[in-house]
Amino acid sequence: MLEALGELDSPTASFLSESTLSRIDSFVDTGSMVLNALISGSLYGGVPVGRVTVLAGESKVGKTLFMLKIMANAQKQGLIPVIFDSENAIDDDGAKRLGLDTSKVKYIAVTSIEEARNQIFKFLSSVQEKGLQGKFIIGVDSLSNLFSEMDVKRMERDSTSVDTGTKARAMKTLMQTLTNMCGVTRTTCVCTAHVYDNPSEMYPSLEKAIPGGKALKYLPSVTVQLARKPVKDDGGKTIKDERATAQKNFSGIIIRALTVKNRLIRQYLEGEMYLSFATGLDKRYGLLDLLVGMGVVVQSGATYRLPDETKLGYYRNWRKDSDLWKNTLLPNLESKIKDEWSYGSVEDEESEDIMEEDPEEPEPVEYEGDGK
Fold it and tell me: Reduced to 3 states, what is the DSSP secondary structure of residue 289?
């Protein structure tokens, strides 16, 4: 029977165990160990290579910053960044401060969904033809600010009519192009998008709506929803920041991340990050909550200890103990994350026993009617 499989002669046809298209074996660091873990299931992972990741959130939450930081880290790994910008928000100086060598970044300003889709399709088709798979990373900032071509034509005619369905259909074709072509060419893609509350919901959902249709929710491999809270300081979890003159109230923002879609590990995972206005994104912020939540350290009031009763004391006393983090805390936390956040990682023996039992046949029920 296996001979019949020879008729499947597509260039992408192979046994699943040998397929490289479906295998994710490398990641790009996001700049935050917590965000790495939420997306990939590893403190040392990040956004998956060859897949589409969407960072969605309200204004001023740091979506563009995260995208540029990811692209800078990808550049250090040897990938070539290509940026499609619909907001005119990315500049040379800002990108350099985040670590990008802007002389090796291709920048394209785009207005419409179809324009972005067509350029990406042509580019990735060329990548495939020239055998340059796995050499590039694409950033789209932002999906929400792209018009549809129909909207552009209406504006040219001075029309005031609106058709949201047209934009959703166009956005679906863009996302289909990205997911399909990025997978085939092993091109990493990070997109940003805005969110809004749905006023028609009777019961507000934890997930916010992303303008542009449902394709933005179900087509990416990973969708991370971000929210922000300005803070005067970080509550002692990292070094307090110096504020600039006249910046009396806030030293940074705490960013809350929620994975509303994830094909790699379990979804609806949450974590916190800290973005200092003075020093940038803190790589380790949020790890303390994970350490306590997963039992790697035990909290007793304001002090901490290891499960073997080794005393650690106040967090400020051991947060910079590099040997403790390197040899004990991070390895144990990494192991816990891999065990608890992977799909099917927790076996439910009781459920398995139930499934193994033969279902009982229902007893026949005789209907006693009145004969009518």
Answer: helix
Bridge partner list, 222? 53, 262
Give 146-175 pLDDT, tens digit per residue: 988 888 788 788 877 766 688 899 999 999
Q: Which domains does the chain have, with CATH numbers?
A: 22-283 (3.40.50.300), 286-346 (3.30.250)
Residue 13 CA from chain centroid, whole number: 29
DSSP letter for each residue of 185-254:
HT-EEEEEEE-B--TT-SS--SSPB-TT-THHHHSSSEEEEEEEEEESS-TTSSPPPPPPTT--S-SEEE
Q: What are phi and psi of 339, to 5 degrees?
A: -75, -40
**pLDDT digit string, tens, across residues 5-52:** 555 665 666 555 555 556 788 999 999 999 999 999 999 999 999 999
**Could you tell me if 282 and 274 are in contact, meaning their C-beta atoms sit under 8 angstroms apart?**
yes
Q: How far is CA 288 from the centre of its chain?
A: 21
Burial of 271 (0-12, 13-18, 19+ CB in 10 A): buried
What is the token pair recorded at 201? 């919901």
CA–CA distance, 350 with 241 (Å, rounded to integer)? 51
